[in-house]
Structure prediction request, 85 residues.
Amino acid sequence: MPDDNMQDQWMAIIARALAFLCIQSSSIKDAGLAGQAKFLKGLGLPNKDVAAILSTSEGSVRGLLSYSSKTKRKEEKSARIQKEG
Prediction:
């Protein structure tokens, strides 16, 4: 079974490398850390790997994602109120 474990490790390395390349070669690079973190989480990467790719801490990634979602909800609520009023 060591071959299965080694294969899993290499697949994880390849996935992180491809995620990094996606960030570097797309417009997501200009989206800021929150946009990049959201993109990487959307690819299925755990917070630990997202933090490593973005050169930040895991706690910072959690905070960015939380703040980003709260801000989006506030903007949607404000837009709804303006539309109704």
Notes: The chain has a mean pLDDT of 83. DSSP finds four helices and no strands in the chain. The CA atoms of residues 72 and 78 lie 10 Å apart. Residues 58-84 form the longest helix (27 residues).
